[in-house]
């Protein structure tokens, strides 16, 4: 895997080691927390999905009922009702309000519908079938209720989906990239520090060896010198220096008078 | 942190409708319709003469308008502009597919549900619908 060999580029000192260790602890804690968040979000997600499925089912039924009542109204009040309704549209009296709900740290939108002004009732169904028209209207308002709830479920569903994807991405990044990097950096720094220590140790031992050798040499030289001194004193007592006697013997090789 | 799509907290937003004549009439009767001073409406009546282009334009307009929070669209109309509906991924306005009189609800084509079909098929094993 790509993360195995990589580490951060740092100077291998003890302080940096401390800093990187702290970061590793932070990354581990963050990873655990994010995992918990992802699990909580997934639970919410599943429950919303179930609700959506059941609501869609009921929505299908409600729409059927409302269009049936519309057909009734058309039958009773005549075909013109469509045009009358179309003409009558001014400002919407049914509107939706959007709020934000905080679920497990994610802001989910929620819709609720409310009636704003007065529904323009003036011209519809005055001629005939006013009651059917009223019933039809009631049925459709009910349908709108269900639809608004479904819409808010759907938006929270989509938002949760996004949030779960982001959180999972972060969890995976922490687990597979950040933590191995930090761990590799820590082992690198430790390795460098150990090597420096070994170098120091080795240098120390070498210097100790040198010092010891020096001392020994000096001792040997002193001993030799002391022996020489003793021999010199001894020969001086006899009247000649040992060195002189040696030279005499060596020189006699070239003297013609002395025949051996 | 990446920019999360801002969900505005609004106090009044409209419901747009793109459906056949009867469905739109019903919703208008309930009071969903709005015509502003520039004669712009928040509904579109689709009949067999409406082209896919008109539907496309209306859809684009409704989804970019600031004051529309929900767009109701008939399923067979959504099938006309399926590519647009499927590639739409903003949380607001919410796109809702509704059945119409002649075309009962078909969950296989619903854009939201098909996106999580793998999850759905796991769920529907337990909550059969």
Task: Please explain how this structure is put together.
The complex is a heterodimer of chains A (260) and B (129). With 260 residues, chain A is mainly alpha-helical. Chain A has helices at residues 14-77, 81-87, 130-238, 242-251; strands spanning 94-103, 106-115. In chain A, 73% of the residues lie in helices and 8% in strands. In chain A, α1 (14-77) packs antiparallel against α3. Chain A is rod-shaped. Chain B has six helices and four strands, in the order βαβαβααβαα. Chain B has helices at residues 21-30, 52-64, 75-80, 82-87, 111-115, 117-126, and strands spanning 14-19, 43-45, 68-74, 94-98. In chain B, strands 2-1-3-4 form a four-stranded parallel β-sheet, with helices on both faces. In chain B, α1 (21-30) links the parallel β1 (14-19) and β2. Chain B is globular. Chains A and B meet through α1, α2, β1, β2 and α3 of A and α1, β3, β4 and α6 of B.
Task: Record the SSE blueprint.
The complex is a heterodimer of chains A (260) and B (129).
Chain A: H1 14-77, H2 81-87, E1 94-103, E2 106-115, H3 130-238, H4 242-251
Antiparallel strand pairs in A: 1-2
Chain B: E1 14-19, H1 21-30, E2 43-45, H2 52-64, E3 68-74, H3 75-80, H4 82-87, E4 94-98, H5 111-115, H6 117-126
- Sheet/helix structural class of chain B: alpha/beta
Percent helix of chain A: over 70%
Please report which band the strand proportion of chain B falls in: under 5%, 5-15%, 15-25%, 25-35%, 35-45% or over 45%: 15-25%
**Average predicted confidence as pLDDT of chain B:** 74
Alpha-carbon distance between the two ends of chain B: 39 Å
Q: Which percent range describes the beta-strand content of chain A?
A: 5-15%
Q: Quaternary state, please?
A: heterodimer
Shape of chain A: rod-shaped
Q: CA-to-CA gap between the ends of chain A?
A: 95 Å
- Uncertain segments of chain B are 122-129
